[in-house]
């Protein structure tokens, strides 16, 4: 039973010969909040645009709500069920807040007036203010309101908290959490703020140079990865670099820092065979996972 | 709501063009131009402003049009528009239709004082006005086509360039009959209107020759046919581009 | 009920939430029979993933600490275990305060006392592990 709200297979995209995506297999289960992280230029916005059919893939398949998106009609049908917040958060400069809402409403038969009123109130958006006069925070909140009030089953958000102060950021995250809790909305959002991803997401997907390097439930990642710190009496032996079960190694003189994945105990035993002076095991934060996986050549 | 959006994007441009016409009519009293000269000058200026209006009011429904066309590149809100559950062709069709209706309405309204000024009968005038509308659609479609591939600024520069090329091409007799711009020079053609004004007596040498060939034959169904064909061709190209282009 | 979650910690968030709710129950911040806030409210107030809250509540229900009544929400179980725990905590407080008084009479500083306590605690753990390995 396919309960994936987003699924891509082998998605590829190049710009002028430069590959941006090199085979993306994304799988976002319904009802989850998935954080999409990666360095600038890794392919996040390209992937999100492909999902909305703003771009056409060079190869690969896209499935939204279980249906293939292979024609404009399918894309339009999918977009009716999706809320999108763009990277630049730009709306029409000749409309006010109220006009923008009234413009967007008729496109979505599932529009929720109650949610519209609720978020207008929570975000304190002034109805008669022209959009160009809004601060970045308010523009983001308006775009979020438009995305959330349309009764969408899926939200695709490109850096929804970018440039927002901590108070507004918390309001936004609270609104998203509340919507997911009340309506079961699935959310895929890209972010540079790993702390936020750890806070609100239950899944994380790390993309680096056009490929997905990590994709899984956050709780699982926390149990599957450990940092092992070894201190040796002499220089760290070269064998440390080729230990099985280790994703990434960093040696500095007598210390070696290992990112272990999977069967941690087995890896620990193998590490102990190298006879270190001391062995420490620590949990791994999302930031460490990120930095270790994108620094590799 | 797409119609309303098109209106929001074009209303100030429409107002601006109407203001241009008002200025044209004030020229006579302001600059003391003699009547005979005024008639032909006015007609030429009308032609230019009609062409200008058609390019200004055109749009593809994707890029948000805001200022008078000075912003280069696409406006950020374009992605929002494209992410709406509306087919691109529909976005184009509504915007193009709205601007086209406005252009024709503008031509009709601005032609009223002109008809009065020249003392023409409405039955004759209506034919010329209809013809001018048809010909304006060629200029409009060129501008809409540019709007599909570029931002506001180059949409205007490009379409003005194209119109300029059309104007220059009127020198070449064989195809000049089909040239849409002829349709704009509507009242000057019948000598019944201007027995005393001939192309040779025109103040600007540059326009004498093209006008000569333009004035050569009437009626101008050729021009209307040429316009319609060009407009259809541009629309066809626009739709093909929209289907494929990535923004 | 004050909930403070460290989202970057190595401890899974649902485990932290469970511990905090258990602690609130044990210290009497929420009493037996009292209703816990709705999952939606907890998720929204803390701006955290609702699935995580669901998991925490579900595990607590499985452990017998919560009772989920369909349609109305989650309630703290009125079980003897909870009352016993509260009593045990009180008693432990009493034992330790007596011991601390005696140790203070020896003239040790607070830091030294802590070090001795940690050392005894750790040794107790090792002893327990050794016992478990042998059995």
Model description:
- The complex is a heterotrimer of chains A (297), B (247) and C (135).
- Chain A is of the alpha/beta class.
- Chain A has helices spanning 44-51, 72-79, 97-104, 113-123, 136-149, 166-183, 194-200, 218-224, 264-273, 286-295, and strands at residues 4-15, 18-24, 27-29, 33-38, 59-64, 67-68, 82-85, 154-158, 186-190, 203-208, 211-217, 225-231, 246-252, 255-261, 278-283.
- In chain A, helix 4 runs antiparallel to helix 5 and helix 5 runs parallel beside helix 6 (166-183).
- The model of chain A has no long low-confidence stretch (mean pLDDT 92).
- Chain B has 247 residues and is mostly helical.
- Chain B has helices spanning 2-31, 35-57, 78-82, 88-118, 122-149, 152-168, 173-176, 205-216, 221-244.
- Chain C has two domains: 13-78, Winged helix-like DNA-binding domain superfamily/Winged helix DNA-binding domain (Arc Repressor Mutant, subunit A), CATH 1.10.10; 94-134.
- Helix content of chain C is 64%, strand content 6%.
- A two-stranded antiparallel ribbon of chain C has the order 1-2.
- In chain C, a hairpin with a 3-residue loop joins strand 1 and strand 2.
- The longest helix of chain C has 26 residues, at 80-105.
- Chains in contact: A-B, A-C.
Tally of helical segments of chain C: 5
Largest sheet geometry of chain C: 2 strands, antiparallel
Q: Major sheet of chain A: order of its strands?
A: 7-8-9-4-10-11
Rg of chain A (CA only): 22 Å
Count all strands of chain A and give the number: 15
The CATH class name of the largest domain in chain A reads Alpha Beta
Going by CATH, what is the homologous superfamily of the largest domain in chain C? Winged helix-like DNA-binding domain superfamily/Winged helix DNA-binding domain
Label the CATH architecture of the largest domain in chain A.
3-Layer(aba) Sandwich
Mean pLDDT of chain C: 83
Structural features:
heterotrimer; A: 297 residues; alpha/beta; Rossmann fold; Alpha-Beta Plaits; 2 domains; six-stranded mixed beta sheet; five-stranded antiparallel beta sheet; 10 helices; 34% helix; C: 135 residues; mainly alpha; Arc Repressor Mutant, subunit A; two-stranded antiparallel ribbon; 2 strands; 64% helix; elongated
């Amino acid at each position: 039973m396919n309960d994936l709200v987003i699924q891509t297979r082998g998605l590829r995209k190049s710009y002028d010969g430069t590959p941006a995506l090199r085979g993306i297999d994304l799988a976002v289960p319904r009802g989850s909040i998935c954080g999409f992280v990666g360095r600038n230029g890794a392919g996040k916005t390209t992937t999100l645009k492909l999902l909305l059919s703003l771009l056409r893939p060079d190869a690969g398949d896209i499935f939204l709500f279980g249906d293939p998106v292979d024609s404009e009609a399918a894309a339009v049908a999918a977009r009716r069920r999706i809320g999108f917040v763009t990277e630049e958060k730009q709306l029409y400069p000749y409309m006010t807040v109220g006009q923008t809402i009234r413009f967007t409403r008729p496109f979505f038969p599932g529009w929720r007036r109650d949610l519209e009123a609720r978020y207008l109130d929570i975000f304190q958006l002034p109805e008669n203010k022209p959009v160009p006069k809004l601060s970045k925070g308010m523009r983001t909140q308006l775009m979020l309101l438009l995305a959330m009030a349309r009764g969408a089953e899926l939200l695709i958000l490109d850096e929804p908290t970018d440039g927002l102060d901590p108070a507004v950021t918390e309001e936004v995250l609270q609104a998203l959490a509340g919507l997911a809790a009340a309506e079961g909305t699935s959310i895929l959002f890209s972010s540079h703020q790993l702390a936020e991803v750890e806070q609100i997401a239950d899944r994380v997907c790390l993309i680096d140079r056009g490929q997905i390097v990590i994709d899984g439930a956050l709780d699982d990642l926390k149990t599957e990865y450990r940092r092992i710190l070894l201190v040796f009496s002499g220089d760290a032996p070269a064998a440390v670099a080729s230990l099985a079960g280790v994703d990434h190694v960093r040696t500095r003189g007598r210390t070696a820092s290992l990112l272990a994945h999977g069967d941690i105990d087995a890896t620990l035993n193998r590490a102990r065979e190298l006879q270190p002076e001391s062995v420490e095991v620590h949990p791994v934060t999302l930031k460490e996972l990120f930095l270790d996986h994108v620094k590799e050549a | 709501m797409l119609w309303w959006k098109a209106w929001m994007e074009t209303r100030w441009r429409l107002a601006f063009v109407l203001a241009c016409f008002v200025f044209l009519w004030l020229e006579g009293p302001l600059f003391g131009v003699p009547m005979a000269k005024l008639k032909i000058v006015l007609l030429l200026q009308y032609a230019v402003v009609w062409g200008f209006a058609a390019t200004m009011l055109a749009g593809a429904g994707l890029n948000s049009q805001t200022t008078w066309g000075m912003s280069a590149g696409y406006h950020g809100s374009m992605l929002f528009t494209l992410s709406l559950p509306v087919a691109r062709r529909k976005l184009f069709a509504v915007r193009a239709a709205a601007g086209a209706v406005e252009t024709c309405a503008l031509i009709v309204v601005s032609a009223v004082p002109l008809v009065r000024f020249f003392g023409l009968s409405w039955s004759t005038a209506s034919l010329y006005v209809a013809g001018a509308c048809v010909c304006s659609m060629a200029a409009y479609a060129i501008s809409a086509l540019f709007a599909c591939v570029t931002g506001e600024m180059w949409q205007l520069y490009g379409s003005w360039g194209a119109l300029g090329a059309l104007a220059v091409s009127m020198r070449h007799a064989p195809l000049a009959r089909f040239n849409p711009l002829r349709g704009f020079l509507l009242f000057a053609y019948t000598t019944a209107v201007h027995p005393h004004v001939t192309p040779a007596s025109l103040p600007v040498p540059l326009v004498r020759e093209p006008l000569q060939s333009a004035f050569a034959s009437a009626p101008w169904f050729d021009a209307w046919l040429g316009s319609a064909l060009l407009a259809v061709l541009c629309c066809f190209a626009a739709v093909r581009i929209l289907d494929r282009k990535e923004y | 009920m004050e909930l403070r979650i460290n989202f970057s910690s190595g401890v899974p968030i649902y485990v932290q939430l469970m511990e905090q709710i258990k602690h609130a129950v044990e210290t009497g911040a929420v009493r037996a029979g009292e209703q816990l806030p709705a999952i939606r409210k907890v998720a929204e107030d803390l701006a955290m993933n609702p699935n995580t809250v669901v998991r925490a509540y579900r595990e607590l229900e499985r452990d017998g600490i919560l009772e989920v009544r369909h349609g109305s929400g989650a309630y703290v179980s009125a079980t003897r275990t909870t009352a016993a725990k509260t009593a045990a905590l009180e008693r432990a407080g009493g034992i330790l305060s007596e011991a601390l008084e005696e140790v203070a009479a020896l003239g040790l500083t607070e830091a030294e006392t802590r070090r001795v306590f940690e050392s005894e605690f750790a040794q107790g753990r090792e002893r327990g592990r050794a016992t478990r390995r042998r059995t």
